[in-house]
Amino acid sequence: MTQPATAHTDAPARPDRPIKLYRLILSGHCHRIELMLNLLDLPYETVDIDLGAGEHKQPAYLAINPFGQVPAIDDNGVVLADSNAILVYLANRYDTQRTWLPRDAVAAAHVQRWLSVAAGDLAFGAAAARVAVLFNRDVDTSAMVERGVLLLSRLEAHLTAPNATPFVAAAIPTIADVALYTYLAHAPEGNVSLQPYPAVRAWLARIEALPRFVPMPASPCGLNAVAA
Ligand SMILES: N[C@@H](CCC(=O)N[C@@H](CS)C(=O)NCC(=O)O)C(=O)O
After folding, report:
1. Whose CA is nearest to atom 20 of ligand 1?
2. Residue ranges of the GST C-terminal domain (predicted)?
3. Does ligand 1 have an atom closer than 6 angstroms to the CB of 191?
4. What ligand 1 atom has the least distance to the C-alpha of 30?
5. Whose CA is nearest to atom 2 of ligand 1?
6. What is the pLDDT of residue 95?
7. Is 75 domain-assigned?
8. What is the C-alpha separation between 81 and 86, in angstroms, rounded?
């Protein structure tokens, strides 16, 4: 029988059993996976890894992710690490409509471009500043904050350009939005303000309005501590 062009024929629409998510609850990398699992309405269970106690560097966890980082998932024996790789997997495997990661070459490249931003400028800018503040690390965060500010001003320009779309890579949400969301929404915790960026704040609100959106817990640090 001929399948519709958009149907994903080689995978079940839902996992047989809950997907196991190895995580740290205050990690934005982990939250992006939890958000995606919810947006796709997939069953999952969480396994909290105690990074403070070094559990992520113990043999049991290194067998799951030799890089010793969270997140990782186990989907009925398919074990994967790296948040963006996991987003790609979940979209390819379970998004039957292929809207979260389009098949079209140009559309997919737009998504990948922002995944790279999430793994680069975002991870080493606003996210790194937040983790330093959150865990009270004795490091100079000024270069991280500067990188976060530069990314936000670039994103503001992207979202207000004449050909701008409501979501970063398309008119509808994609995994690029999911990859960028958490560390940008929580940037004030690392002393990176969102106030000068109304288009970015409107975009964050559009993600928060999606069905089954789940937040990451807020931490009263950085600009949030000042505001509290
Ligand atoms: N590229 C990885 C980065 C993940 C990452 O940096 N995870 C942090 C927590 S947010 C971690 O596990 N850090 C411990 C370490 O690197 O030793 C991903 O996207 O999943």
Report:
1. 82
2. 104-228
3. no
4. 10
5. 82
6. 97
7. yes
8. 7
Q: Measure the CA–CA gap between 218 and 145, rounded to whole angstroms.
A: 19
pLDDT for position 10:
55
87 with 194, same domain: the answer is no
pLDDT at 13: 80
Which CATH number fits the domain that encloses residue 43?
3.40.30.10
E-strand ranges in 63-175 read: 72-75, 78-81
Q: What is the pLDDT of residues 107-134, one digit of tens each?
A: 999 999 999 999 999 999 999 999 999 9
pLDDT at 6 (0 to 100)? 42
Is residue 70 in contact with ligand 1, taking CB distance under 6 Å? yes
Q: How far apart are alpha carbons 115 and 66 in whole angstroms?
A: 22
- Amino acid symbol at 186: H
Ligand 1 proximity of 83 Cβ (cutoff 6 Å): yes
Q: CB of 65 closer than 6 A to ligand 1?
A: no
Question: What residue numbers bound the domain in which 169 lies?
Answer: 105-227
Residue 2 lies in a domain: no
pLDDT attached to residue 11: 60
CA distances from residue 71 to 60, 93, 119, 196, 222 in whole angstroms, order as listed: 15, 18, 14, 31, 24
Answer whether 55 contacts ligand 1 (Cβ < 6 A): no
Which residues of the chain have a pLDDT value below 50?
Answer: 1-9
